[in-house]
Write a structure and sequence with these properties.
globular; mainly beta; about 40% strand; 2 helices; six-stranded antiparallel beta sheet; two-stranded antiparallel ribbon
């Protein structure tokens, strides 16, 4: 299923508070994560229960790690969201090429690689 930028933004607004949106940097990973794939989130390992898109919410973008952040795992089949609280980003030093920043402090960022819009 192709998921558009506008669908991702709608899902973010449906699943996060205005306070979280306005106080964070929100990234969209264009890489589809396959069911049972694992990623490292700091000291934790997370295994995907469904094919999904990862949305990473940095709740304190200019702080060093560890600090609160959120992961939204979007099921690409039914658009349901699983939210995971964490303290580390999904990458070490450099933001992966598959990541695009969607929102900075609630303001949409351009350009964005599209997937369906």
């Amino acid at each position: 299923m192709q998921i558009s930028k506008s669908q991702i933004l709608d899902i973010i607004h449906q699943n996060l508070s205005a306070e979280h949106i306005e106080g964070s940097f929100i990234y969209w990973d264009s890489k589809i994560r396959i069911r049972e794939e694992q990623i490292q989130i700091g000291p934790q390992t997370y295994q995907f229960e469904f094919d999904s898109i990862l949305i990473f919410v940095d709740l304190a973008p200019f702080f060093n790690w560890a600090h609160p952040c959120l992961y939204l795992f979007l099921n690409i089949d039914n658009l349901e969201v699983e939210t995971v609280d964490a303290s580390f980003p999904p990458y070490s030093n450099h933001i992966p090429e598959t990541y695009s920043i969607l929102l900075k402090y609630g303001i949409e960022q351009l350009p964005l690689k599209e997937s369906g819009d």
